[in-house]
Design a protein that fits this description.
20% helix; single chain; 8 strands; alpha+beta
Length: 127
């Protein structure tokens, strides 16, 4: 039987659908996508892309802390962007939250995200 723990924290936005913030099985954490919502207000942090990117990493960090880990534990990160021209900004912001060795990563350009967000990120972590 697989042990499965549902991860929830009030320090990250509440789920706005039929999903959990994260699910932990054994030593692996599967992080749901985080958009740049401020947890207390459930509204976008701002229209500025860099501020949105910071908020996404803050939200992922809060969920990782609730999982007894940190961003350092993320081994695979997926980033979704509505404008791939923002990719250099993602690298600048990400460098403030991650250090080497960096996780494996994909950057995917998509048409739109929930609530008009410009960025979303999800990932897999090993604790």
């Amino acid at each position: 039987m697989t042990n499965k723990a549902i991860i929830h924290t009030d320090n990250a936005p509440a789920a706005i659908g039929t999903y959990s913030q994260a699910v932990k099985t054994s030593n692996t954490v599967y992080l749901s996508g985080q958009i740049p919502l401020v947890p207390e207000t459930m509204t976008l942090v701002s229209e500025d892309f860099a501020e949105q990117a910071h908020q996404v990493f803050k939200n992922l960090s809060a969920v990782m802390e609730a999982s007894d880990g940190s961003l350092k534990n993320i081994v695979k990160l997926n980033i979704y962007l509505t404008d791939l021209d923002n990719f250099p900004i993602v690298n600048e912001v990400m460098a403030q939250y991650f250090s080497e060795p960096y996780p494996a990563r994909a950057a995917i350009g998509i048409n739109q995200l929930p609530k008009g967000s410009l960025i979303e990120a999800d990932g897999i972590a090993v604790i």
